[in-house]
Amino acid sequence: MRVDVVTIFPEYLAPLGLSLPGKAREAGLLDLRVHDLRDWTHDRHRTVDDTPYGGGAGMVMKPEPWGEALDALTAEGDAPVVVVPTPSGEPFSQALAADLASKPRLLFACGRYEGIDQRVVDHARTRWDVREVSIGDYVLNGGEVAALVVTEAVVRLLPGFMGNPESLTEESHGAAGLLEYPVYTKPPSWRDLDVPDVLFSGNHARIAAWRHDQAVRRTAERRPDLLHPSAVVDDLEVRTVQ
Ligand SMILES: Nc1ccccc1-c1cnco1
User: Fold this and answer.
1) Is the dihedral of CA 227, 229, 233, 237 positive or negative?
2) Which atom of ligand 1 is nearest to the CA of 112?
3) Domain boundaries, the chain
4) Whose CA is nearest to atom 12 of ligand 1?
5) Of 15 and 21, which is predicted with more confidence?
6) How confident is the model at residue 117 (pLDDT cuts 50, 70, 90)?
C-alpha cells in the first residue's frame, strides 16, 4: 500500500517511521510519503491560508495549493482514496479501517486552521473516492493526528503485517465484534491479586469459553451498543429501549 500525507507540518508524521508502520515499511508492505503543502505555493511567504468569505474568526486554507498538490501527486501511481480528516466526517471505525486496508493507495489531506476551502473536496470528489473522516467528537488543531490514527489502524490490517493474524480476531472491535477479554501474565499473585484459576487449568475449551464470556460481559457493561439486541449474558439480558 502507498500512503501519501499532505500537511503543513510534515514533521508531525515522524512517528509513522517508528514501531508498527516503520516495520511495515521495512517489510515493503507500506510505501509512505509525506509532503509539505507549502511546496505547492509560489509566493515569498509560501502562503496557504486566507480570511474566510462571509467573515468569521480564523483563517481558511486556500484551494490553489491543494489543487496543485493533488494534481501533482495523482499524476502517477494508483488512483488514491483521498482521506480528509475533519470533525464533520463519518466516524472512523474498524469496519472503515478494513475497507481502507483493501485499497492500493490512500492520500491524506491534512487541514489546519478553520478548514480547507470546500471547493477542494468538491472538486476532488469529481475525480477520486473521497472519504471525510472523524476520529471522534472532540476538537483537534489539525488533521495530522487523525492521519496517524487512521494509518496505524489500517496498516496493521495489511496481509503479512501482523506476525500472528489470529490476534486480529480477539482484540477489541476485532472480527468477534466484542471488547477483548482481560489478560494476565506472571507472577501468579501480585499485591494480593491472583490470576483466575481457570487460566491454570490447561483445559483449552474451558479457557476459551471463560474468555468469550468475559468479553461478552465486558462488552455488555461498557459498550452495550456493540452487542446485538438479542444477545443474552447469563443473568444479564441486554435490551435496547425503543
Ligand atoms: N478537529 C479536527 C480539526 C482538523 C482536522 C480534523 C479534526 C478532527 C478529526 N476527527 C476529529 O477531529
Assistant:
1) positive
2) 4
3) 2-155, 172-240
4) 87
5) 15
6) very high
CA of 159 to the centre of ligand 1 (A): 29
CATH of domain 2-155: 3.40.1280.10
- pLDDT tens-digit series, residues 59-91: 999 999 999 999 999 999 999 999 999 999 999
pLDDT, mean over the chain: 92
> Which residues have C-beta within 8 Å of that of residue 204, sequence separation ≥ 6?
none
- From 77, 68, 66, select the one nearest 1 (Cα to Cα): 77
Single out the residue of 63, 114, 61, 110 nearest to residue 83, CA to CA: 110
Position 231 pLDDT exceeds 60:
no
Distance CA 36, CA 46 (A): 11
pTM: 0.90
Question: In this predicted structure, which of 8-22, 56-70, 86-100, 128-142 has the lowest mean pLDDT?
Answer: 8-22
As for ligand 1, residues whose beta carbon falls within 6 Å of it are 85-87, 111, 134-136, 139-140, 142-143, 146
Any idea which architecture 172-240 has in CATH?
Orthogonal Bundle (1.10)
Instruction: Work out whether the CA dihedral 48, 52, 109, 93 comes out positive or negative.
Output: positive
CA atoms within 13 A on the CB side of 68: 12
Residue 38 CA, ligand 1 centroid: distance in Å: 20
Reported ipTM: 0.99
Look at strands 31-36 and 129-134 and give their pairing: unpaired
